[in-house]
Write a structure and sequence with these properties.
By secondary structure, the protein is of the alpha+beta class. The chain is 14% helix and 24% strand. The protein is globular.
Length: 99
């Protein structure tokens, strides 16, 4: 099990390897926008990985293409619907305040 911490809500939950980051954040009841049901077409589930980047799957071509179209993206950006937890380390994410 991996511990996922969601900022700025200071919420932490235990998540299983292979769970999507979006599903885990929603299970914690932290508010995160999502319109496309995990299809990587809207970009609304954009968040920042503060710690534990190696605890997530690698960024794919489709996710990278969507991130390139968004405002406010940085080197720590991920789409929660496209990232899965690998179970190798704990992960801390931040939901942007402009969401």
């Amino acid at each position: 099990m991996t511990t996922l911490t969601i900022l700025p809500f200071a919420t932490s939950i235990a998540v299983a390897e292979g769970d999507s980051l979006l599903a885990a954040v929603l299970a914690s009841r932290a508010p995160v926008a999502h319109k496309c049901d995990g299809e990587a077409s809207c970009g609304q589930c954009h968040l920042f990985v503060i710690e534990g980047r190696k605890g997530l799957s690698r960024i794919g071509r489709e996710e990278n293409a969507i991130l390139d179209t968004l405002v406010g993206v940085g080197s720590k950006s991920r789409l929660a619907c496209q990232a899965t937890l690998t179970g190798t380390e704990d992960v801390t994410v931040e939901v942007p305040s402009f969401v």
